[in-house]
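New here. Your pick:
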Amino acid sequence: MNAISFALILTGVMLNACAQLLLKAGANAVGHFEFSAANALPIALKLGTQLPIIGGLACYVVSVIVWILALSRVDVSLAYPMLSLGYVVNALAAWYFFGEIVSLQRILGIGIILLGVYIMARS
């Protein structure tokens, strides 16, 4: 895999991770809600007007474009497993930004993911 292909994949992963973090921030701003037919429209409007959610959706749109560019250069069997790097980024960012707990089991899982991505990237 060349540097441009790797950069495209990494950019797609980071945009996807950023999208998840922004969606979480938007959901946190709205707070816990019960979704039912009676409150579907008010909740949708509340969620749809949150800037972090709009930003997260925009990140998804750009990530799809970047991902298509990456797939035009790299086999999907190599590129797709690289998306698991998003789990690593999100776990660490969720700990930093949202105070989520990163337990020993999660750290072990992150290590396994990193090892797997390293092995895949070398193939």
Remarks:
- The helical segments are 3-30, 40-48, 51-71, 76-82, 85-98, 104-122.
- The chain has one domain: 3-122.
- Residues 90 and 122 are 24 Å apart (CA to CA).
- The chain has a mean pLDDT of 93.
